[in-house]
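Revision sheet: structure tokens.
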Amino acid sequence: MDFAYQEQRVLANISMRVRAGDMVAIAGPNGSGKTTLLRLLSGSLQPVRGEVLLDGEDLRRVTARGRARRIALVSQQIDARLGFRVDEIVGMGRAPYVGLLGGPKEVDKSAVRRALHVCELLDHVDRRFDELSGGEQQRVMIAMALAQDPDFLLLDEPTVHLDLGHQHALLELLTQLQAERGVSIVAVMHDLNLAMLYFQTMALMYGGRLIALGPPGQVAASTGALKVFGAPLDQVEHPQTGAPQFLIRRGDATAD
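Predicted:
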């Protein structure tokens, strides 16, 4: 599929499949089209050529409510000024199931409780969103997405602005969700090493094109694929998992 803003082509010849229960990291240098691809997968943008299929159906033909029951999107930008309580924000995730004139039913309340529990937020339900740390706010937004009970969880740079401890906790949570609930996870990842360590599939973008797709080891072995980052990299193995990891060589800059 292709996508363009007005006459400016942003994505070209993108073809990929997200399998049930997969964890896919979309990586690449700035401006390569990662977030645009994620928004196409969510249905918030529409391709100018080609289509996004959800169980064989063109996503453009699925209603907004129908999409929200299957696909949840956690954006990169979080409005820290939100004055709602944690439980109120997570409850917003049930909007696709609650009628305009009716209040939440027991099934909705149960879904909210499960999401709060999974994201370890039960002790924070009465706190205001703007009182939370960055890591806690990120967990609230993921809990709201989980309350939608989605089959696909899409995240735009979920670890951005988080310290190492919160990055680790968040990615372990996503791994747990994928393993225990079978949620398919697609995340734009800025940190190449974290993407290689935690995700089963890598989608490497450059210049609006998908240049490599497959397991981390396969993508790392692709001839010249990682040169798109414009930095001299040495590859090592993670001592625990064997996943490819990359170290930057000093004094040998090659970025254009």
